[in-house]
Amino acid sequence: MIITIASGKGGTGKTTVAINLALAVASASESASGQPQEGTGLSHKGVIFLDCDVEEPNAGLFLKPTFTQREEVGILIPEVDFDKCTYCGRCAEVCQYHAIAVVGKKVLIFPELCHGCGSCTLNCPEGAIHEVLKTTGTIEIGASGPITFGQGTLNVGEAMSPPIIRQLKQRLVPSEPSEQLVIIDASPGTACPVVEAMQGSEFVLMVTEPTPFGLHDLRLAVQVARDELGLPVGVVINRVGVGDRGVEDYCAAEDVPILMRIPLDRRIAVAYSEGIPMVEALPEYRERFLSLYDRLEEARVS
User: Fold this and answer.
1) CA torsion 187→190→195→200, rounded to 10°?
2) Which domain does 240 fall in, by range?
3) Is residue 174 a part of any domain in this protein?
């Protein structure tokens, strides 16, 4: 099962839910020696965790992985062979991102606008354009105990994070149906990086808080995941005990299942500030996150 954990609003506890779900499921699966554990429905052979919040990856602060692979990645941008170029302007015509301009006998390339789609190279009638790699970030892959861990990091000053997310997923997400649980920790918001993280997922778990701001951004995120991408959606409400019933009423009206509620608890905040996952600081939450996994399975197939 491939799950993307997202949030329309930053600071709702998205990464907290992601890492604790991964730890609970990995621990239960490992103790069951690959066999389904009674009452949990676990039958997969492992957990894969991808930190796709490439502008500020922080899951590693809690999972403390050991990295064994590091690779520079980026996008392919055009480079012009002026001995062949006739300045016909065809490359500029087909570039929907306006990353190329032909002015008289000059071809101007704007790497910051290029999405690496390759249209200019394919459409150049003279074969005067080839592509070169522009490094925009890095991918690191390793392990945290039984969890396979991967994270991407966008270089400072770069704007294009989706290509890093796409390449990280290509490295770690199984291309064929698998018994493994894949958890993708997306960035907050509803922009292109979040859409890229959600693509190919089987379920999107939204983490929100019961406040007007949380409700506003939850609406936007559900619209993107469910209405635009056609993905099933469920909700975790964090910090229950503050705010109002707006999120509860919205989920009931929109038939969005609430799969877990986490109370506002000082002990959770203290553990988080010390880099200790909730399921380790408060062992009673291990069963709660295993129950969340069961509800995810049920909601995915319903």
Assistant:
1) 80
2) 2-46+179-301
3) no
